[in-house]
Design goal:
Layout lengths: L1 H17 L2 E8 L6 E8 L16 E6 L19 E5 L5 H10 L4 E6 L10 H6 L4 E5 H11 L3 E6 L9 H30 L14 E2 L2 H20 L1 H28 L21 H19 L7 H19 E2 L3 H21 L10 H7 L13 E5 L5 H5 L3 E5 L1 H19 L5 H24 L6 H18 L3 H6 L7 H9 L13 H5 L29 H10 L2 H6 L1
Parallel strand pairs: 3-4, 4-5, 5-6, 8-9
Antiparallel strand pairs: 1-2, 1-7, 2-6, 3-7, 10-11
Length: 573
């Protein structure tokens, strides 16, 4: 019974929160008859606003912003005569303003506020006495109304219902899951291909060495830096936001170049190299130089027009996806143990800064949500670019007033994406049909759907890792348990642990008399041993191109080694 009562109170409270935002439709009385909607915030206890615009009363607006309507002397001589009055906020209570307006014939009251919008409050007896709607309008919107429509205008106040989920969630879902799937597949395939094929090319490009293995110490340092940066942004947002914008422009340019260079490299155009430069030891191809200039130009265009809401979000999402793909390809988690440590630490980090920090801040706002959405009092309206953002596709008060964009942070893509990349590498190593990769990617999609449902039910910012981490970790370890590969999956024991072992594994083909299956051989090769048991090659650590001391290769040995490499693995890479 108590649980049912609490659930009912929660539903009632939720419905009240959903009805606090409304719209005022402004219509010009001139020949053109242009219209525009503005955000208002109202208290349904004064009077309910109709949900349908056709049922809202279209009345003339009487501009009294020169006064605050606190005393009878502020009322015009002719009264309000079936109009909606617009007055300034301050110097008296909301009740005193709306009572004077109702007594003098007003059919509604718009209170212009220079501060943040809040629902106009009162007490029970005051609510019973007043039967006209009262709402708050921002000072900036009042100036825009005066500039756009002049003095002769009509207005209608209404509160359309909020959709349960906006269609832009579908766009964010496709972008996030697609980035994780493509990035994880690309990172795993590139890593495996490098480990299997690098020993054939003595002059391999140094670009292949850009992969960074994450260690537990690096994870701890990374989390401390994240916490420090988030707190600094909360207190010094106005200054540090430009630093983050500059870092994003640079990093996204590199990411876009990294994503496009494999495709541009296949175009038979401008293959010649530029002449030697005194400040450079390399001679890049002309087509790559053109690509680099293009990527920098795209970032610069976004930086100049970043506050253009109509189309700048497309550039931001494109650069953001390229940045995420580049990071997934560059940063590598070598074991599932490292994956678990990173995801669990950031799981706690996300929960703390979303749900715990409201109890520690003076405003009661979540530090994470405040930093991600940007302070409401920031005059230039700069926002952090480290998010995927899509404008709301439904016309609703929430889109107009509070959150015109739906956001998903890069961390909610990158962190689970690293686990997906590890699963793909492990799939190829144990010669499965990518079961770990597919299962983890599907789990990520399910976790993201749960996040969207929680966002719609609670109508407040959600820590996505709260749902993504359990879904991906539990699914991955469950697949390992089902396949009885927990030890290999946890420790990454199927990968070579040293360059000497990797070279020895590559150089020693398995005996035809060996009874060990190929899938079981990597686990033996990973163990440092001086036994003569032949094993299969591994690719977690790079195989050295030069053989160990005292080891010489004959032509037959090279041919045997190449024949020993599984053809299906190299083709998958």
């Amino acid at each position: 019974m108590a649980l049912g009562t609490r659930l009912l109170l929660f539903v009632l409270q939720l419905s009240q929160v959903l009805s606090e935002y409304g719209m005022v439709r402004v219509l010009s009385e001139t020949e053109h008859g242009s219209t525009k909607d503005y955000c208002i915030q109202f208290n349904p206890y004064w009077a309910y606003l109709p949900h349908d615009l056709s049922k809202a009363s279209l009345l003339q607006l009487q501009d009294l912003t020169s006064s605050d309507l606190c005393t009878p002397s502020d009322v015009p001589l002719q009264g309000f005569s079936n109009r909606i009055a617009m007055v300034m906020r301050g110097n008296c209570t909301f009740y005193e303003k709306v009572r004077l307006a109702q007594i003098n014939g007003a059919k509604g009251l718009l209170i212009v506020s220079r501060q943040s919008l809040v629902p106009p409050g009162g007490n029970g007896s005051q609510y019973e006495e007043i039967d006209i709607p009262v709402a708050l309008l921002s000072y900036e919107d009042m100036l825009d109304i005066s500039k756009t429509f002049g003095k002769s205008i009509k207005v209608a106040m209404y509160a359309p219902n909020e959709p349960f989920l906006d269609y832009n969630m579908v766009v964010i879902f496709v972008m996030a899951v697609g980035t994780v799937a493509i990035g994880g597949y690309w990172a795993g395939s590139k890593d495996v291909k490098k480990r299997y094929m690098k020993h054939k090319h003595d002059g391999a490009d140094k670009q292949d060495d850009e992969t960074v293995d994450v260690t537990p110490i690096m994870i701890c340092i990374f989390v401390v830096m994240c916490c420090s940066m988030l707190v600094l942004l909360y207190y010094f947002y106005h200054q540090l936001v430009y630093v983050i914008i500059g870092i994003f422009c640079l990093a996204s340019s590199i990411g876009l170049y990294s994503c496009l260079s494999p495709f541009v490299g296949r175009i038979p155009f401008c293959e010649c190299r530029i002449p030697d430069l005194p400040c450079s030891h390399k001679r890049p191809q002309v087509r790559m130089l053109i690509l680099g200039i293009f990527c920098v130009s795209v970032s610069c265009v976004w930086a100049v027009f970043r506050n253009e809401d109509k189309w700048a979000w497309v550039l931001q999402d494109t650069l953001g996806i390229a940045f995420c793909l580049y990071m997934l390809k560059t940063i590598r988690l070598p074991t599932f143990k490292a994956c678990t440590l990173l995801l669990m630490v950031l799981f706690v980090y996300d929960i703390f800064f979303v749900f715990i920090t409201p109890f520690l801040t003076r405003s009661g706002e979540s530090i994470m949500v405040e930093v991600a959405a940007g302070p409401s009092d920031f005059s230039t309206h700069e926002k952090l670019p480290m998010v995927l953002k899509v404008p709301r596709l439904n016309s609703s008060p929430l889109a107009l007033c509070d959150r015109p964009f739906s956001l998903l942070g890069f961390g909610d893509v990158l962190i689970p994406g690293m686990l997906v990349a590890y699963c793909h590498r492990f799939d190829i190593q144990v010669q499965t049909s990518r079961i770990y990769f597919v299962a983890c990617t599907i789990a990520y999609g399910i976790g993201l759907l749960i996040t969207f449902v929680a966002l719609a039910l609670m109508q407040t910012g959600q820590p996505a890792l709260l749902y993504l981490v359990p879904c991906t970790l539990i699914t991955s370890i469950s697949v390992a348990c089902w396949r009885k590969e927990v030890a290999m999956f946890w420790n990454g024991s199927g990968f070579a642990t040293s360059s000497h072992d990797a070279a020895l594994c590559v150089a020693s083909p398995p005996s035809t008399k060996s009874k060990l299956p190929i899938s079981a051989a990597p686990d033996i090769c990973a163990q440092p041993s001086n036994k003569s048991t032949p094993t299969t090659p591994h690719h977690e650590e790079e195989a050295v191109t030069d053989p160990p001391a005292g080891f010489t290769e004959s032509t037959n040995e090279i041919e045997s080694r190449e024949n020993f490499l599984p053809k299906d693995r190299t083709s998958q890479s």
